[in-house]
């Protein structure tokens, strides 16, 4: 995509887009588990609530259609992003209409709908990011992606916990919906250049889907790479699936959990994403995945030590270290994922990979409650760290950086 945007303007636009996705997702992944635990819901049931994020794992099914069809007037990607963000904001503002908090069933349905809207928007946003960013900009671009998303999650999660504790349900949901509308302004002002689909418009839907989705089966080393995507973040999400309930069971109040995730998590997660994005090209992809993956495993193991008994300052320190290393590892992984995308299938190729990551992390989070209840928090976090370590070993044994993809080419990934 030819564009006159400077690198800072590209990064600013992507920051607003990924922050927009993180706002509602942060509310439902960080605030909801705390509220459910405060109402006495069991750990397995809270873990299973992560299955409401299933649209994030299934978005690859409709990604090829979004690659193939787009609005000429609004833009191929922007034509999806704008209406989806407005619908998400409207849904959140609608939850603020009742006098008190909505019922749990209504809230869970809202979780599913917002996840569907945000996951669909993410397909278009990822496609736009792959097209906008030059190869030398991708490290910073993915750092910004992770950082923006984490800022949104912290604002939608930690900050909303504090607001619920102090102001109540309605002002909190109004604030969340209004923040999402404000975050929509940059993409509303953005003029998306034409991005032709390289002659694939004439291809019928069946061959297009096969070319977009099933091409992974024929790529050399695809099995090793897709296994890496399954493993690399699963251990961390197995741990953090029970982080909020762990903090509640450790005796922290809503506001304390909010400050720990909102202040500590925001600062260190943002720093980690930016540092990871800046260093991935300098370290080279394989070394970055190994170094950041090792740090991630060590940080998750700190949760196991904290579960044996820790003060609030120590819990805050451990939380900060884990957010820092997680941001670094995620930025490195996303950068490598972009390099596995063919230009004419940017949204589809990236979405297939992202969906697999989400499927793996969602499954890990879904079973986290069963693991924590069966083994206790300390052994649960130890198991999570072991899965993180297994991912690092897999990277060391199988990963080789991909070559740049062109139409019809297949990368060598293992």
UniProtKB/TrEMBL annotation:
Main location: membrane
InterPro entries linked: AmpG_permease/AT-1 (IPR004752), MFS (IPR011701), MFS_dom (IPR020846), MFS_trans_sf (IPR036259), Tet-R_TetA/multi-R_MdtG-like (IPR001958)
Key word Transport present: yes
CDD domains to which the protein is assigned, alphabetical: MFS_MFSD3
Keyword Manganese: no
Major facilitator superfamily (MFS) profile domain segment(s): 10-403
Topological category with respect to the lipid bilayer: Multi-pass membrane protein
Classification via SUPFAM superfamilies: MFS general substrate transporter
Transmembrane segments: 46-65, 86-119, 139-164, 171-190, 257-281, 288-308, 314-338, 350-371, 377-397
Localization (cell): Membrane
Keywords, comma-separated and alphabetical: Membrane, Transmembrane, Transmembrane helix, Transport
Protein name: MFS transporter
Species the sequence originates in: Archangium lansingense
């Amino acid at each position: 995509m030819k564009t006159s945007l400077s690198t800072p303007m590209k990064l600013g636009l992507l920051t607003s887009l990924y922050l927009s996705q993180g706002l509602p997702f942060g509310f439902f992944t960080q605030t909801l588990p705390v509220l459910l635990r405060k109402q006495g819901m069991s750990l397995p049931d809270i873990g299973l609530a992560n299955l409401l994020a299933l649209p994030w794992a299934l978005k690859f099914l409709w990604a090829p259609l979004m690659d193939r069809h787009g609005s000429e007037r609004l833009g191929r990607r922007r034509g999806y992003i704008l209406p989806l963000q407005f619908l998400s904001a409207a849904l959140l503002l609608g939850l603020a209409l009742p006098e008190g908090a909505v019922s749990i069933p209504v809230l869970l349905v809202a979780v599913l709908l917002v996840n569907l809207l945000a996951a669909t928007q993410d397909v278009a946003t990822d496609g736009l990011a792959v097209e906008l960013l030059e190869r030398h900009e991708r490290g910073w671009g993915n750092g910004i992606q992770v950082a923006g998303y984490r800022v949104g999650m912290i604002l939608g999660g930690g900050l909303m916990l504090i607001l619920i504790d102090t102001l109540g349900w309605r002002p909190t949901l109004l604030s969340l919906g209004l923040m999402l509308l404000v975050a929509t302004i940059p993409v509303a002002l953005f003029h998306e250049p034409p991005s032709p689909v390289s002659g694939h418009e004439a291809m019928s839907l069946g061959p297009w889907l096969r070319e977009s989705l099933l091409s992974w089966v024929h790529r050399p080393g695809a099995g090793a790479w897709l296994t890496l995507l399954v493993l690399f973040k699963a251990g961390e999400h197995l741990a953090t699936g029970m982080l909020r309930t762990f903090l509640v069971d450790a005796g922290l109040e809503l506001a304390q959990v909010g400050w720990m995730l909102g202040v500590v998590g925001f600062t260190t997660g943002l720093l980690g994403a930016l540092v990871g994005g800046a260093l991935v090209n300098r370290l080279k992809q394989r070394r970055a995945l190994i170094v950041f993956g090792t740090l991630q495993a060590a940080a998750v193991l700190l949760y196991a030590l904290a579960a044996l008994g820790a003060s609030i300052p120590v819990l805050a320190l451990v939380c900060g270290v884990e957010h820092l290393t997680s941001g670094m590892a995620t930025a490195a992984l996303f950068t490598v994922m972009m390099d596995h995308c063919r230009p004419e299938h940017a949204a589809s190729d990236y979405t297939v990979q992202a969906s697999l990551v989400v499927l793996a992390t969602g499954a890990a989070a879904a079973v986290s409650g069963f693991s924590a209840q069966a083994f206790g928090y300390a052994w649960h976090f130890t198991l999570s760290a072991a899965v993180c370590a297994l991912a690092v070993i897999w990277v060391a044994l199988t990963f080789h950086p991909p070559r740049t993809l062109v139409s019809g080419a297949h990368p060598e990934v293992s």
